[in-house]
Amino acid sequence: MELNRRTVMAGAAAAGLAATTLGTGSAQAATGPGGRKPVKEVFGTLADGTKVYRWSLENGGTRLKVLSYGGIVQSLEIPDRHGRYANVSLGYDNLAAYVAGTTFFGATIGRYGNRIAGSRFTLDGKQYQLSVNDGVNSLHGGAKGFNTKVWDIEPFTSGSDVGLHLYYTSVDGEMGYPGTLKTKVTFTLNRHGDWRIDYEATTDRPTVVNLTNHTYYNLAGEGSGSIYDHELWLAARRYTPTDPGLIPTGEQARVAGTPFDFSRPKPVGRDIRTGHPQLVTAKGYDHNFVLDKGVTARPEHMATLRDPGSGRTLKIFTDQPGVQFYSGNFLDGTLVGPSGRTYRQGDGLCLETQHFPDSPNHASFPSTVLRPGQTYRTSTIHRFSA
Fold it and tell me: How far apart are CA 325 and CA 303, in angstroms?
């Protein structure tokens, strides 16, 4: 029998609270009204002398560690059905690996999540040339996207919530994007252990924006092996097929009768080697799924991921119209995680809530245009259970 979610999470939190070391930085490690107060410690130093800090949060049985470099989720610890903790996010234990890396482990992505074809788009009759970093395309904001920036971070406690406000201002022309974009990202842990991300942005010139988070999940624990036995459900009856460069063709194809049908829970690996042309091109799943709900006023449940072995389950809620499901196809065994084990193909997966890839170049896709006087807002909630 599976234990009640709150019983497992609360019991694990109580058992682990005193034994958990969250750092030795300047902040106090006192217990806040609903969890452990955010704690700051030095994680490393960049080549120019800039210090990078790691902030640690704990609430409701969830433990989260976030870097000021890239707004990166460096660790996400969740208990299993027996209350045993594991870090369920892929990453590194040192700053140099993040700086050198090309996998976007745990990163806050901007200005534009996913790919833009030919590294260019046209807005209000003017064409903009973007940073080229994925063949001829621009990926996740370019060669020096938000995942490479040092964010200003302010901790907070609010009622029973604990969290972090992350701030970054992207100047006009950075990576080719027009307008000065002021960005705020808020990470919150509530008393139930839910992890919520709220994104906000404003601009002084018309631009395009598509922010997301790039955490790789392995609910059995990072370094434990493949996620192919994880069961995935997606509330999506359509997906967007891609060309050989992984750019959407503009079609919104039905998933019924294809390996892309996750409308009922199934193991990620069940159909991944079927030889479907789209899976061959991407070396697995690397596709945007069109969520049935579309853009919504508040986050709605659209994905469930479960590891049968540990019992850990992740439910995702978002107000966005799409989710990019990436099955870790390009992990090649050369990267080593905090566990000391290498990451190979399929050892983690991403569920990136966002607008569709290449939306600026497809009039039929939901718009990602942001204009002066408007505020970009979007939210995603991650709910854990065992």
Answer: 10
The three-state secondary structure class of 85 is: strand
Question: And the tokens for 319?
Answer: 């107000």
* Residue carrying the six token digits 């959407």: 248
Tell me how far the alpha carbon of residue 298 is from its chain's centroid.
Answer: 18
Q: What is the largest CA-CA distance in the chain?
A: 61
- Token pair, residue 27, equals 């902040």
DSSP 362: -
User: What is the rounded CA–CA span in Å between residue 350 and residue 22?
Assistant: 26
What share of residues in the chain are helix, strand, coil (percent, to 5)?
Answer: 10, 40, 50
Cα 195 to chain centroid, rounded? 12
Nearest-5° Cα angle at 120, 240 to 203: 95
Q: What's this model's pTM, rounded to 2 decimal places?
A: 0.92
Q: Specify the amino acid at residue 196.
A: R
Mean pLDDT of the chain: 92
Is 80 exceeded by the pLDDT of residue 29?
no
Phi-psi region for residue 51, left (φ > 0), alpha (ψ -120 to 50) or beta? beta
CA–CA separation, 381 and 379 (whole Å): 7
What are 59's two structure tokens?
Answer: 């609430």
Which phi and psi (to 5°) does residue 97 adopt? -65, -40
pLDDT tens track for 315-350: 999 999 999 999 999 999 999 999 999 999 999 999
Residue of 121, 117, 123 lying closest to 138 (CA atoms): 117
- Residues with catalytic annotation? 214, 352
DSSP one-letter code for 337 = -
CA atoms within 13 A on the CB side of 47: 5
β-bridge mates for residue 233, sequence order: 304
